[in-house]
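Re: beginner question about structure tokens

> Can someone show what the tokenized structure looks like for a real chain? I only ever see the sequence side.

Sure, here's an example I had lying around. Input first:
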Amino acid sequence: MMTYSRRSLLTALICSAGMALTTGSAFAAKKNLVFSGGPAGGTFQVVANAVQVYDPVKASKQFRVRAQSSAGSVENLRKVNSGKAHFGVVYSGHVYLGRNGKLKNDTKNYEDVLAVSYLYGAPAQLVVRKGSGIKSLKDLEGKKVGVGNAGSGAFANCELFFSHAGIWDKVERNAMGYNDAAQAFGNNQLDAFWLFTAFPSGAVIMAAQTNDIELINLGAEAESLGFFDEYPYFSKLEVPAGTYKGVDEATPSFQDSALWVANADLSADIVYEMLSTIYTDEGLAHMKQQKKTFKEMAIETGVNGIVTPLHPGAERFWKEKGML
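And the corresponding structure tokens:
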């Protein structure tokens, strides 16, 4: 017959094993989430990194977030749609075009990419040397131009805009990221380079340290070409005077909205928790500390620029906040 002490020991061992199993199950249930950002020197990667390192996100019992670099908007659209990434940053225009099978040379419908929130407005910027004689898009014909790295939103929007203007096949295109373009521009290997990112851009600041620069008035070009009529998800804005060294006048341009997006199959509870964590006073202050660009992030602007369906978790959150 089993003695009391032996029976007690066996009970304790069984309880310990049960607790270990429960703890192990809880640990295993913590979901690894990939947040697809962008290339070095771009704001997309700053978004992903900022979310990954925020202490309340790191403390979540539901998930871990891992920032992952990418080529940018179009690649993020594809990665999030396929489930290779759970979150990403994608321009509103690409979410719209992708959902409707209207991406350049790509008729696939990317319907599993759902909006989470508006992050910031991303304006087009075209940098040239002061005194170069390049004053318009037509003046770029035959010139060496950095057009963004392949797979990025910068590249896709450059192709869209330059094709609309009829010069895409008339420039010597160099597909490269912003920092590489700024360095090549500084070494006189480029006559101009294009960006589609929030200002001030570190790459443009870098370029202005080695050259006197100017920004082309892209707003006037877009207006005269009927670009806003053809692509209504773009909006007008100006790059303020003094944003960059030597650029002392405001420069009209146009912008798309950078959106936080999620895969449609991701749990609504996780999306809701992420928004509830980031869209607090402390969370928004953390984002602004990472980059001034994120000063646009607020409850009041949370659904700006979104023209496609919201993720159910985001819809719940923004309804509670009175934004829908």
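Each token stands for a local structural state, so reading them left to right follows the chain. The chain has two domains: 29-120+258-320, 122-256.
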